[in-house]
Amino acid sequence: MERAVLAWALEMPIVTRCWSIAILAASVLVSTNLISDKDLSFVPIAIVKKHQYWRLFSSFFYFGEIDLYMLYQVYIITQHSCTIEQGFNSSADYLWYIFVNCFVLIIYSFLFNTNTWLSFALVASLMYVWSRQNPHEEIAIFGFLNIKATYYAFVIIAQALLWRGSISAAGLAGLVVGHTLFYFEDVFSKLHNNIKILQPPWRWRTRPIPHINPDEGAREGLLPEGAPEDPLVEQERLPN
């Protein structure tokens, strides 16, 4: 059994694995009274005046003491964060993407001072962006109810309402931040020559060279008339 759990954990991409382990560790520490959940919460005054900077990070790892709701959140993360991470060029790119999400959520929470726990907000933001980018994917809720991915971010908000009995302010913040990031990542980039302003710094110098059609390039003065689209391709066409 232990080997099966270890093998399952090792199959996860590194960022998802570390995030899941941190969530479980935080819940175990609080459930065993080794630390208080108040020491992990996001409290702007404590961060600014008491220099408790760990709260900037710890609030993203805590979903409550060990119970069915916390375990369900870990399940969501292990299932969907794996899929999202595998869609990036590297785990480092995914880590940067999570960092951007966390940074915007922190700014949002500083401005409105409405969220004590940012973990669920981060999940809601990630799921919102993923669902908008993959609207036709089908997701099984509780293993038997299939829905389109485009509605999934709202479904997890409704699930939180059923579990906790109240609308999650953190979940709503996640939807707002997720929509903002989706706009800049997809809509804004398509309107501005595929500029990805949210991509990691190490990708800034790797923007693809725009394709220039030879005929259009000649008309616009970018290429001499009759110039080949790709000199290497044209060279291959020449007889030996």
Automatic annotation (TrEMBL):
GO biological process: response to stress
InterPro entries: DER1, Rhomboid-like_sf
GO-annotated cellular components: endoplasmic reticulum membrane
The keyword Transmembrane helix is assigned to this record: yes
Annotated membrane topology: Multi-pass membrane protein
Pfam families: DER1
UniProt KW keywords: Endoplasmic reticulum, Membrane, Transmembrane, Transmembrane helix
Record localization: Endoplasmic reticulum membrane
Bilayer-spanning residue ranges: 14-35, 56-76, 96-129, 141-161, 167-184
Region Disordered: start-end pairs: 215-240
Keyword S-adenosyl-L-methionine: no
Similarity annotation: Belongs to the derlin family.
Function comment: May be involved in the degradation of misfolded endoplasmic reticulum (ER) luminal proteins.
Identification of the protein by name: Derlin
Biological source species: Cyberlindnera fabianii
Lineage start: Eukaryota, Fungi, Dikarya, Ascomycota, Saccharomycotina
